Inverse folding.
């Protein structure tokens, strides 16, 4: 159970943070010298119009506060005792803080995390956060460097990911690819798709994004990373006006919410800005996505019978589609 944090919970806050920092060599925990607000943390966040929570057993804490720009709220002071990790407490803490911020009008969630806290990075990435912006250098005793993570908080939002964001999204995108393949999507893989193979695919995508060979778009639904699509820009030199749409993926849990259409429309907008006036793609003829493409104005260029096999070894036709001057 969680409750609102109080100033007289100071010893619990100090213990949680001190124990967490002690797991990393070189991290110095000086309460009175650098973190005096821990002595009255509830009051500190109240003055910032924020909120603070503590687990009833004292094994976890989290806070959130509004920022001045972009209707954003910041997640902070999130710590979970080692004995409580893997129990679901971290997920409950984050969900509570995000729900509070969303109810208060947050359009975007932001957080900072030390570059050494790799387990925290994995946790936030699974929750749909992606890295954004430069690394922050703190003038503290620990000589800390921090990554900035962010994500849309509400509604259906599609954003283009840069190289850092693409790399940090690999875990969650791997989960989406695995789920789509298991659900029967025709995206070059057969079930069961291993996590290692899926992660390897997304690492290659991140490399292409970093090299400027690929555009990666991601869609969030109420703060959850729910889908993705790509534009392959690595066309031959005699086709500088063309791009290929690839790997339209929507997590099965988020189907029929307009995610696929939103991704495709944003892909077309991105292509237009890049001067790519002709888009091409291929899809299994009986795949659900084929109807979406036609509804969005894509035209059939051709059909190849028996082009790809499904998990049962049955061959399916593949359609080749194009859209020009969109």
């Amino acid at each position: 159970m969680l409750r609102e944090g109080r100033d007289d919970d100071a010893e619990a806050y100090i213990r949680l943070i001190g124990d967490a920092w002690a797991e990393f060599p070189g991290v110095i925990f000086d309460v009175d010298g650098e973190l005096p607000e821990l002595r009255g943390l509830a009051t500190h966040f109240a003055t910032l119009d924020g909120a603070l929570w503590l687990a009833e057993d004292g094994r976890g804490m989290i806070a959130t506060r509004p920022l001045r720009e972009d209707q954003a709220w910041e997640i902070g002071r999130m710590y979970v005792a080692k004995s409580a990790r893997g129990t679901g407490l971290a997920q409950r803490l984050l969900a509570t803080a995000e729900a509070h911020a969303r109810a208060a009008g947050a359009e975007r969630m932001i957080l900072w995390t030390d570059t050494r806290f790799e387990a925290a990075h994995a946790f936030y990435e699974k929750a749909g956060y992606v890295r954004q912006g430069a690394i922050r250098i703190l003038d503290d005793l620990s000589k800390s460097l921090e990554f900035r993570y962010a994500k849309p908080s509400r509604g259906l939002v599609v954003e283009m990911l840069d190289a850092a964001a693409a790399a940090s999204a690999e875990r969650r995108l791997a989960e989406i690819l695995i789920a789509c393949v298991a659900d029967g999507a025709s995206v070059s893989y057969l079930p069961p798709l291993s996590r290692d193979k899926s992660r390897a695919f997304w690492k290659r995508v991140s490399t292409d994004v970093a090299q400027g060979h690929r555009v990666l778009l991601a869609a969030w639904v109420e703060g959850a990373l729910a889908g993705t699509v790509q534009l392959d820009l690595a066309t031959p030199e005699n086709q500088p006006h063309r791009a290929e749409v690839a790997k339209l993926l929507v997590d099965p849990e988020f189907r029929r919410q307009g995610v696929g259409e939103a991704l495709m429309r944003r892909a077309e907008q991105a292509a237009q800005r890049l001067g790519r006036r002709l888009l091409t793609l291929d899809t299994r003829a009986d795949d659900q996505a084929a109807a979406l493409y036609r509804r969005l104005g894509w035209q059939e260029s051709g059909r190849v019978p028996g082009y790809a096999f499904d998990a049962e070894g049955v061959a399916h036709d593949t359609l080749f589609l194009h859209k020009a001057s969109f």
